[in-house]
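Postdoc handover notes: sequence design on the structure in folder B. Input tokens:
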């Protein structure tokens, strides 16, 4: 009890200390009060997550992503003298900062609510339920887990081959060509298997495999993430690395011995070096040269480079009239899954737009593509874009109430992922798969996880795993008789 009181006191002292420092510095530099509010709320939530990181690892990474993509550049403008640009968007700063505060607050509310529901459910369900399930259905569990594992490694081999083909394609045509046209040398089957490999892995990890087997699969998955950087993309590597660490922390919370705080601190120490590497990669992939100008300047440059997602929110106000005809952009992936999949598309001859094209920008339902076209014009057709942001999509579609509900949902899911108990193979597998998309939602679509997890190939692949597992079990039972 005394230790808990000390920990709670430490959190409060850290929050108070950093809040006072931020307020004093902000007064000196005459910062916008709403930006101060965003920073203070973020600091409070970050300290809350970091001081009990095993129980809040998912929230910790989400907040890190939130800072990099939505707060970092503005902080550099105010506190580190970074020269402002995109000045035509300045009139929308204050309301944008207010939306960031609203989103953070409702993420925290959803997170706490989810935690309370979890604690209540633990009072109703015995903690040894997982052990009972695995004992009573040991054959079912082993077969299902093995099929998931085999499926992952088959898809993994294909994904490595596809990545190498894509790397050669981009090396010959340039990084931006990947946004302009599809690589025809990769067969659709290979593309589907590559996309499903991460889902198969998550389904396998949800079966609570042994430490050795799980770490082996995670190791190969991390190698794939590293190799994807040969294609010039950084998103996949970062998302995979976060998923690996989060899974290890979740298993450590349940059974211990997976990851220590020293290991986490070592990872945090490596972050500045990773930032420098990612900066260099960004310069190289567009044909430029990288010049190291010191650690501090490199971090500022990184935050400046990655912090453009906040401008997506500002642009929904700037281009308000031009995007008035766009509706339900926050559910663009859901629309694609339900009405633009291969089956429905062929039956009803539905026109589907892809890549950076005028048709996709003007006649599609993507806020990111529409804004990119208006912002970059011809450069958009060459592969440039502004990206997206879940807050921008929610506010454009549903106003303030949309930001509140959507952020509450994200907070609920973040805690739900962190509280995985490996009791439901399919449900927990979906939650683990959501990490990849939800963590980076500040720079992506609100429903990005739907496109990745519930697409036609993912549903088909998951059904095949279940059917094959049932068939193997039925065959064994028949032979025993």
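Designed sequence:
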């Amino acid at each position: 009890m005394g230790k808990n009181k000390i920990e709670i006191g430490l959190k409060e002292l850290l929050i108070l200390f950093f809040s006072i420092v931020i307020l004093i510095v902000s007064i000196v530099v005459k910062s916008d009060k709403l930006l101060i509010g965003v920073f203070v709320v973020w600091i409070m939530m970050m300290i809350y997550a970091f001081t009990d990181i095993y129980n809040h690892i998912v929230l910790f990474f989400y907040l890190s992503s939130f800072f990099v993509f939505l707060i970092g550049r503005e902080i550099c403008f105010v506190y580190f003298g970074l020269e402002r640009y995109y000045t035509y968007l300045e009139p929308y700063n204050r309301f944008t900062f207010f939306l960031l505060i609203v989103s953070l607050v409702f993420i925290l509310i959803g997170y706490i609510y989810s935690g309370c529901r979890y604690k209540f459910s633990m009072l109703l369900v015995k903690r040894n339920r997982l052990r009972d399930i695995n004992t009573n259905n040991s054959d079912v569990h082993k077969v299902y887990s093995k099929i998931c594992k085999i499926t992952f490694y088959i898809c993994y081999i294909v994904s490595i081959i596809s990545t190498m083909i894509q790397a050669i394609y981009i090396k010959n045509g340039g990084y931006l060509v990947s946004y302009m046209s599809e690589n025809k040398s990769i067969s659709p089957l290979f593309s589907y298997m590559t996309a499903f490999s991460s889902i198969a892995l998550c389904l396998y990890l949800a079966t609570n495999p042994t430490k050795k087997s799980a770490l082996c699969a995670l190791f190969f998955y991390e190698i794939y993430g590293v190799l994807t950087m040969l294609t010039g993309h950084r998103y996949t590597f970062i998302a995979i690395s976060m998923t690996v660490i989060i899974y290890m922390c979740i298993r450590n919370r349940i059974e211990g011995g997976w990851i220590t705080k020293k290991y986490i601190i070592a990872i945090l120490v490596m972050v500045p070096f990773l930032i420098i590497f990612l900066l260099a990669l960004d310069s190289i992939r567009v044909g430029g040269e990288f010049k190291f100008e010191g650690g501090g300047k490199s971090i500022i440059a990184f935050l400046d480079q990655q912090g453009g997602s906040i401008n997506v929110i500002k642009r929904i106000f700037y281009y308000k009239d031009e995007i008035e005809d766009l509706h339900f952009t926050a559910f663009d992936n859901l629309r694609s899954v339900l009405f633009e999949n291969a089956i429905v598309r062929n039956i009803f001859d539905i026109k589907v737009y892809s890549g950076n094209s005028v048709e996709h920008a003007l006649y599609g339902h993507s806020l990111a593509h529409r804004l990119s076209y208006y912002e970059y014009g011809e450069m958009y057709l060459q592969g440039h874009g502004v990206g997206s942001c879940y807050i921008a999509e929610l506010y454009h579609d549903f106003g303030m109430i949309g930001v509140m509900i959507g952020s509450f949902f994200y907070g609920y899911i973040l805690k739900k992922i962190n509280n995985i108990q490996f009791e439901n193979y399919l449900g927990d597998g979906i939650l683990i798969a959501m990490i990849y998309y939800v963590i980076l939602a500040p720079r992506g679509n609100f429903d990005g996880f739907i496109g990745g997890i519930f697409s036609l190939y993912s549903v088909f692949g998951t059904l095949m795993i279940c059917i094959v597992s049932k068939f193997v079990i039925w065959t064994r039972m028949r032979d025993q008789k």
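Context for whoever picks this up: Confidence is low (pLDDT under 50) at residues 1-7, 127-136. Don't rerun without checking with the PI first.
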